[in-house]
Design a protein that fits this description.
With 402 residues, the chain is of the alpha/beta class. Helices cover 40% and strands 14% of the residues. The chain has 2 domains: 251 residues, Type I PLP-dependent aspartate aminotransferase-like (Major domain) (Aspartate Aminotransferase, domain 2), CATH 3.40.640.10; 141 residues, Alpha-Beta Complex (Aspartate Aminotransferase, domain 1), CATH 3.90.1150.10. The strands form 2 sheets. Strands 1-7-6-5-4-2-3 form a 7-stranded mixed β-sheet, with helices on both faces. It has a 5-stranded mixed β-sheet with strand order 8-9-12-11-10. It is globular. Its EC number is 4.4.1.11. It is an enzyme of class 4 (lyase). Its cofactor is pyridoxal 5'-phosphate.
Length: 402
């Protein structure tokens, strides 16, 4: 099925770009496990290398299995083209190395995934790129931070780990008026819930390890944007700067994950809403950060920007850091692990795990409390998720006494 915008999201995720009749009737697209490709003659090879005719010549540049994944991801995000990469960080670094040079400035939100924060602070900055942090929940703060050297405005929404939202349309309008590209990490929301390109962003990146793959059995990254931008990222950022190419086998696994993405995300959303309401009502819990709750500071933005609220929850216990550690160690079914978007419910402590790259002072300044807990609500029966949390939460004496 070729791209058909009248077809629904799930239909395109399953069928787009593949016709079994072109592949011996195979229902599942073939896996191309090859590093290189042969040419009929020297002229054909030269033309493909020169970009004068379509074709494949080396899997570090392109591969038929990756090509199908790239086209599906781009279509689902409402973009012209896509690029599959070795990891989420491979996607982020390949994009930024493509469009930044020494002397440029990148403006980022105050809250970022720990490895992204570390890459910018100790990676980009080391090569003469200025990193400016702004509170992107306030569009005026972004406008005030812009300069004639700003080349990229980068943010996550919802942000990892504290769930802050950014008004994509408002920030994109400000950035484009000053000639800057907008790059959005859409890992938490997925294109099921948010499509930043349709709201004005230029490039979207994902850790495909998370919801796109969805089963905890791969590491991968995705970038989508205009055909021109993705060609540049492919030939500069990925090919020459990082070499962060996705393996064909992993591309096959992500393609499999896309087939159930809409169904899974809807169930993640349903389960997370129930869990968030339970946590908010529990006497041991001090605060819950979840866009679907009326108490969430940006709930109105969530209603405008997201048809569902995702499967991620952040919360704090009244007893603080120590109470959180005790509670997490008492869990039975829920696993202590640092990924997210898997079928399993996962829980972790950002300050000592995913966001330990921040100093304590940086975490305080960037809205990541020492007692914050991040919960990735999975696809288990909701009664079992609730039961495991409830048996752990009442056994936090310091929290209950607070």
């Amino acid at each position: 099925m070729a791209s058909n915008k009248s077809a629904g999201f799930a239909t395109r995720a399953i069928h787009l770009g593949y016709n079994p009749n072109d592949h011996e009737g195979a229902l599942t697209p073939p896996l191309h496990l090859t590093s290189t490709f042969t040419f009929e003659n020297v002229d054909q090879g030269a033309a493909i290398f020169a970009g004068e005719r379509p074709g494949y010549f080396y899997s570090r540049i392109s591969n038929p299995t990756l090509d199908l994944l790239e086209r599906r991801c781009a279509d689902l995000e409402g973009a012209e083209a896509g690029l599959a990469l070795a990891s989420g960080m491979g996607a982020i670094t390949s994009v930024l190395w493509t469009f930044l040079v020494p002397g440029d400035e990148i403006i980022t939100d105050k809250t970022l995934y720990g490895c992204t924060f570390a890459y910018m602070r100790t990676g980009l900055a080391r090569f003469g790129i200025k990193i400016t942090y702004a509170d992107m929940t306030d569009p005026q703060a972004v406008e005030a931070a812009m300069s004639d050297k700003t080349r990229i405005v980068y943010f996550e929404t919802p942000a990892n780990p504290n769930m802050r939202l950014v008004d994509i349309a408002a920030i994109s309008k400000i950035a484009k008026a000053r000639g800057a590209k907008v790059v959005v990490d859409n890992t938490y929301a997925t294109p099921v819930l948010t499509r930043p390109i349709e709201l004005g962003a230029d490039i979207v990146v994902h850790s495909a390890t998370k919801y796109m793959g969805g089963h905890g059995d791969l590491v991968g990254g995705i970038a989508v944007g205009s055909a021109e931008d993705m060609t540049q990222v492919r030939l500069v950022g990925m090919k020459d700067m990082t070499g962060a190419v996705m393996a064909p086998f992993n591309a096959m696994l992500v393609l499999r994950g896309l087939k159930t993405l809409k169904l899974r995300v809807e169930r993640h959303c349903e389960n997370a809403m129930i869990v968030a309401k339970m946590l908010e009502a529990h006497p041991a819990v001090g605060r819950v950060y979840f866009p679907g709750l009326a108490s969430f500071p940006q709930h109105e933005l969530a209603l405008r920007q997201m048809p569902g609220f995702g499967g991620m929850i952040a919360f704090e216990l009244k007893g603080g850091h120590d109470a959180g550690r005790t509670m997490m160690d008492r869990l039975n079914m829920i696993h202590r692990a640092v990924s997210l978007g898997d079928t399993e419910t996962l829980i972790q402590h950002p300050a000592s795990m995913t966001h330990s790259t921040y100093t304590p002072e940086e975490r305080a300044a960037h809205g990541i409390s020492e007692g914050l807990i991040r919960l990735s609500v999975g696809l288990e029966d909701i009664e079992d998720i609730i039961a495991d949390l409830e048996q752990a939460l009442p056994n936090v004496p310091s929290a209950l006494a607070a």
